[in-house]
Specification:
Helix 2 runs antiparallel to helix 3 and helix 3 runs antiparallel to helix 4. The radius of gyration is 12 Å and the shape is globular. By secondary structure, the chain is mostly helical. The chain is built from five helices and no strands. Helices cover about 90% and strands about 0% of the residues. It has one domain: Serine Threonine Protein Phosphatase 5, Tetratricopeptide repeat, CATH 1.25.40.
């Protein structure tokens, strides 16, 4: 169920409907946090950060991205870690 909600969020994110995307990402995160699936939590927090970045909510985007970075390092997910570093760079660039 969490994966389906994440996919719906990704679809809305690509369509530019960031409020809807964030709603689906948060619903997915709630399910994942209750089951402690750290890797997926990291991905969802990354997606939330991306949505918040598009809405120009830079402080919240950075917070979510840093949480994702911490999880990616803990789980050893190098691909996610690289993606998060790029996203953090975008946050700093757009907020300057």
């Amino acid at each position: 169920m969490a994966r389906a909600l994440e996919n719906m969020g990704a679809m809305y994110h690509q369509k530019g409907e960031h409020d809807k995307a964030l709603d689906y990402f948060h619903r997915s995160l709630k399910i994942l946090e209750s089951s402690s699936i750290e890797g997926m939590i990291g991905v969802i927090k990354y997606n939330i950060g991306a949505g918040l970045l598009m809405k120009k909510q830079f402080d919240e985007a950075l917070k979510s991205s840093l949480e994702s970075l911490s999880i990616s390092k803990m789980t050893g997910d190098k691909l996610l870690e690289c993606a998060v570093y790029l996203q953090i760079g975008k946050i700093h660039q757009k907020s300057a």
